[in-house]
Design goal:
globular; 27 helices; eight-stranded parallel β-barrel; alpha/beta; seven-stranded mixed sheet; 19% strand; 782 residues
Length: 782
């Protein structure tokens, strides 16, 4: 059956009299949506179906942010007032690692018991005239869609409504690596507590927080393999509870834990391609989930309800309202899910960080989701943040990004790198005035290291006719002009060259004329590990023979010799983004059956041969780095585990750092874009392969740079687009932080601009839903 009012068919206006609304699921999201809709229009006929009893609930405490509470206050002061009398509030987070406790304050939490929250919402719904039906299964979704004008599916992570219309909602459900159990303790923690237990079976963690004056939520979590090794898979509920209390006896003060039909489970991330179908709409966990470690499940559901109620009041038709609701909430939820994914993966990989000093470990944990940052934490608790900085080695008043970093014989005065960016502005491989101005401006802008674009080792190794090269002495002389400018006019700034070969991605148009499109004329033949075109319509490359591999290796070494003579301080070997050396590393692009294809060890063979040859001719005191694609973002491609092995292999051959990028290897990739989206790969390489790394990928603020470096997730941060937007990005970062020190030097010609200009006032956004803005008629007796 298909819901009535399918998309494209006009539904009654949301404010039409006697609108019939069915809510499936009596959790906080469903109840609050019902209360809001009835509050805003008492003529609506609203029914909530909940298959469990009124006081049945799973889990114990609920944490709500000040932002969410502000939305509730403006939308329904009565609910807000009831909540505020119940809340337990606290500011501190305690992190206990290897018997050392570090406390960070200023975080502002508010929590209450989940059962009490439901009681408040039950009372509010009943006082408004909402029909609450407990211990009763809702009619089937298709039937509800026929008999009601609006169906709100708030039936949780295992939503039957979502399942019934899975072909429309197209859910994607991802299970993760940890097992966890939701328990409670009959005392109140005085802070949000994270406790790490290193057992003979592996690492386990406790997440605990108070939800009343005499009770706390306690979640115990560990990797699946640790859970099995510890024997939890063979214990019943009582045995699991007793074992958890014993393992975390110090955190609990020897007190017991209790359960509530608690079972070990694996968190599942739910994402839906669509949230509505006709007059059926998903809300809360039915539409999306976010890991409990950032405490956003109930928060997101309540905010969904606020947005849905507002859109129903603002839009002329139900169809328009549901479209507006999804358009508003989807980006917010996507951002939260990215943060939650970063947080859960941090805990999945917790063992990587155990060797960190306890204070840095605490900072790393606090900033794991990238929602809390260095600057944000400094505002909340300056004393804690300054202590972390001192432990890291920051001189007084020096942000982490302006601390020096040494690579072999090169000391960079700060941690900022201008990332390689193809400019497609060379003539016959010759860098000209544009390159001088482009790279010179960014060198004057204060970065510790400025990188060239990919410089090609042969004419056939170019991506486009506009790519720069180092296959001739004339080109080396042109580069020398640029390095001399940097060393003379921006003393203290290093300049590096990135050497590469386009492989199967060559002989294409300039980016702005048609990215990755073959030239209309003047094409040159392509070579690659295997004869696979980059995408349909691309030129098919020839498979490289053994003799050609030798020639290529010599082209790289000849270019490296010229680079040294040209005065470059650092050389990076480009083994990423689907270019020639990257093509050997990925199983999606290397189908060879000889000694250079097959296993990862064999796929590494030629890139390592090139690295060794280049390292042999590159000056001993100058560092070499390698850029890799840590994932292909495609099934069957390079994995994060492969990336660690690749990085370790290059480090064993003498690489001084790994520049960790991702993707661009195959045309049908599906990247997971977002702020700092590639940094988790750098983090893993650094802390598992134990090699210095350069993090890249949508790092856009100096706050991100400080956070990543201080947490020990990277050693250097490479930024591309921010430096296109602002060539003096690093200088301005120093000015905005009030830093004046050796980590960045203003050219004397620019010194007058070293203070940020004054800006005008900006007002805070209005609350999402304010009752005075919408038609309102009180229900009788409300």
């Amino acid at each position: 059956m298909t819901p009535s009012g399918a998309r494209g068919t006009a539904r009654p206006a949301p404010t039409a009299p006697h609108l019939r609304v069915a809510v499936v699921g009596g959790g906080p999201g469903g109840l609050y949506a019902a209360a809001l809709l009835k509050r805003l229009d008492p003529t609506r006929d609203i029914t909530v179906w909940e298959r469990n009893a009124p006081h049945d609930t799973f889990g114990f405490g609920v944490v709500l942010s000040d932002e969410t509470l502000g939305g509730i206050e403006h939308a329904d002061p009565e609910v807000y007032s009831a909540l505020t009398t119940e809340f337990v509030r606290w500011d501190n987070i305690d992190i206990v690692h290897r018997s050392t406790r570090h406390t960070s304050g200023g975080h502002g939490f508010a929590a209450l018991g989940r059962r009490r929250l439901l009681e408040i919402l039950h009372h509010r719904c009943r006082s408004l005239g909402v029909d609450l039906r407990f211990r009763e299964e809702a009619p089937g979704p298709a039937r509800l869609a026929e008999t009601h004008d609006l169906v709100i599916a708030a039936d949780g992570v295992h939503s039957t409504t979502r399942t019934a219309f899975a072909d429309v909602f197209r859910p994607h459900i991802t299970a993760h690596r940890c097992r966890y159990i939701w328990l409670a303790a009959d005392f109140a923690f005085d802070a949000f507590r994270f406790e790490i237990a290193e057992t003979e079976h592996g690492v386990m963690q406790l997440h605990g927080y108070p939800f009343s004056a005499d009770a706390s939520t306690v979640i115990v979590e560990m990797r699946e393999e640790v859970w099995r090794a510890a024997g939890f898979d063979e214990l019943d509920e009582t045995g699991s509870v007793e074992r958890c209390a014993k393992i975390f006896a110090d955190a609990l003060g020897g007190r017991p834990l209790r359960s509530n039909n608690s079972t070990w489970t694996t968190f599942r991330t739910v994402v839906n391609e669509r949230w509505s179908h006709g007059n059926v709409v998903l809300l809360g966990d039915a539409a999306h989930t976010a890991h409990f470690s950032i405490g956003s499940g109930t928060k997101l559901a309540v905010e969904d309800a606020l947005a849905l109620a507002a859109c129903l009041g603002e839009q002329p038709t139900l169809t328009a309202a549901l479209e507006a609701y999804e358009a508003e909430r989807r980006p917010v939820v996507a951002s939260t899910q990215r943060a939650a994914r970063a947080s859960l993966e941090w805990f999945e990989n917790l063992a990587l960080y155990l060797r960190q000093p306890p204070r840095q470990f605490a900072f790393n944990l606090l900033t794991r989701s990238r929602r809390v940052t260095h600057d944000n934490l400094r505002l909340r608790d300056a004393r804690f943040t300054e202590a972390v900085e001192r432990g890291f080695g920051c001189p007084p008043g020096t942000p982490p990004m302006f601390t020096p970093f040494r690579l072999r014989g090169l000391t960079l005065r700060n941690r900022v790198v201008v990332s390689p960016m193809d400019m497609y502005s060379a003539a016959d491989g010759l860098p000209g005035d544009f390159h001088l101005v482009h790279l010179g401006a960014r060198a004057l802008g204060g970065a510790g290291l400025v990188m060239t674009e990919m410089v090609c080792v042969s004419p056939e190794g170019r991506i486009t006719p506009g790519c720069a090269g180092l296959w001739s002495g004339r080109q080396a002389e042109a580069w020398r002009r640029i390095t001399d400018f940097v060393h003379t006019r921006a003393p203290g700034t290093a300049i590096g060259v990135q050497l590469g070969h386009s492989g199967r991605k060559g002989s294409t148009k300039l980016m702005w004329e048609g990215m990755d499109e073959p030239l209309d004329e003047g094409n040159w033949p392509l070579v690659a590990p295997s004869p696979l075109p980059y995408r349909p319509g691309s030129q098919t490359p020839r498979e490289l023979s053994r003799a050609q591999l030798t020639d290529l290796r010599e082209q790289f070494t000849a270019a490296a010799v010229r680079a040294a003579r040209a005065g470059f301080d650092l050389l990076e070997l480009h083994c990423a983004h689907g270019y020639l050396l990257s093509g050997f590393l990925s199983p999606l692009t290397n189908r060879r059956t000889d000694a250079y294809g097959g296993s990862l060890e064999k796929r590494l063979r030629f890139p390592l041969e090139v690295f060794d040859a280049v390292r042999a001719v590159w000056p001993e005191d100058r560092p070499m780095t390698v850029r890799i694609s840590a994932t292909d973002w495609a099934e069957g491609g390079t994995t994060a585990e492969d990336a660690v092995a690749i990085a370790r292999a290059f480090a064993d051959h003498g690489a001084d750092a790994i520049d960790v990028s991702t993707g661009q290897v195959v045309a049908d990739e599906e990247p997971e874009f977002g702020r700092s989206y590639q940094t988790p790969f750098a983090d893993r390489v650094r802390n598992e392969a134990r090699v210095p790394v350069i993090a890249v990928g949508a790092i856009s603020s100096w706050d991100d740079v400080n956070s990543l470096i201080l947490a020990g997730r990277t050693d250097l941060c490479a930024l591309a687009r921010p430096h296109l937007y602002d060539p003096h990005w690093t200088l301005h970062a120093a000015a905005e932080q009030g830093y004046e020190g050796p980590g960045v030097v203003w050219p004397p010609q620019y010194r007058a601009g070293s203070r940020p200009p004054r800006t005008g006032r900006t007002d805070a956004p209005k609350p999402r839903l304010t009752l005075s803005d919408l038609p309102l008629t009180e229900a009788p007796g409300a």
